[in-house]
Amino acid sequence: MLDFSSLLLAAALSGTCLSITMLAIWFTAPRARFVLTVACGILVLVAHVVLFWQYTKEPNPWLCEAVLVLLSLGFLIICMSAMQYLGVGNHGRVVLPTLAAMAACATFTYLGFDGIGFQITYATVTALLAAIGTMFWMKGDHDRRILLVVSFLSGACGLSFALCGLVLLVHGQWILGAAPDNWAERLNSVVAVACMTGLGALTLSLHHLQAQIELKAETMTDPLTGLMNRRALSELYGDRSFGPFMAIAMFDLDHFKMTNDVFGHPVGDQVLCRFAAVIKKYGRTGVDAFRLGGEEFALVMSRVTPEKAHDWASRIGVAFGTEIVPTPRGPLRSSVSGGMGFGAADGRTLDEVLAEADAALYAAKRGGRNRVVVQKKAGQPDAGPTLRSA
């Protein structure tokens, strides 16, 4: 059976190999900054383990200070990596309390109350691990199976550190003079090695998952406007049944080919981006915007009446008509034509609603452009005026 020193050295070796693996992954994918942060945090913990092993052999007050500081600092960095991955901002909420706890720990240890210093550090680490587990439990919206395992491992590791502090507290060990050695410390060594190894392996899985998500987002996003593309429209709504409170507005920028020919493609790109910005400005829950290609756009609206959908599309046309793009030839105003397609009580497919919106769009162009048109059909709810000038 491994003794306490062997467990510490095994933890240091495991952590070193894990951090080297993560650094190698980060070098091949520099955008995955959270992997680099995890690797740095683990390296700090490896330094803590090595110094703690030395401290068990030759107790020294300054070595004790370093051991406790590195333990809190390592888990603080790992907590920050979790915030990076989950997109949680305001790191000060975690950094400032941890630094305050480290300062308190250093003060008590300097005064000779190293037992209190260990208790403060264990409480700090427990709080950091609890924060990691809570963030992954509450904030994660990707693969829940991986995220819940991260929460479980963080909680188990945090509990083992809490037990270490609780044992010192119950026995009133305010002054130690040496490294604490009890059943909780030995249990913590085993649990911490297992959990940190598991968390490291899961970090690699999270990196792979994030890479997949980013790749999928890139393939479903128009790089110029930042809107979703036609592929995303098919992915999101290809199998949907469009009910009576769903609608699609198709837009086509008026005389866009002439804009490119006269003002140049860079100006044309600015016009496209301006229209995309207008759509985003009017965005809300239940509204998804897409650039279908060229100067064609689509807006899918859910939980709206036909009248409200038509009014929404018309407002976008009006707002875009007020946009001015500066060019070497002078200010440029553009307009847009739109057509509406609606769902039905018995359900309609995406292709059916798009075909209706496309037909209405061409009717808008034939009718003089700069308007949003609704094709009137028997049995279709009244969507307001057939033409709405933008």
Automatic annotation (TrEMBL):
Keywords: Membrane, Nucleotidyltransferase, Transferase, Transmembrane, Transmembrane helix. The chain crosses the membrane at residues 6-27, 34-55, 67-87, 94-113, 119-137, 146-170, 190-209. It catalyses: 2 GTP = 3',3'-c-di-GMP + 2 diphosphate. This is diguanylate cyclase. SUPFAM superfamilies: Nucleotide cyclase (SSF55073). It comes from Mesorhizobium captivum. The lineage of its organism: Bacteria, Pseudomonadati, Pseudomonadota, Alphaproteobacteria, Hyphomicrobiales. Gene3D superfamilies: 3.30.70.270. CDD domains: GGDEF. It is an enzyme of class 2 (transferase). Its EC number is 2.7.7.65. InterPro entries: Diguanylate_Cyclase, GGDEF_dom, Nucleotide_cyclase, Rev_trsase/Diguanyl_cyclase. One of its GO terms (molecular function) is diguanylate cyclase activity. Residues 244-377 form the GGDEF domain.
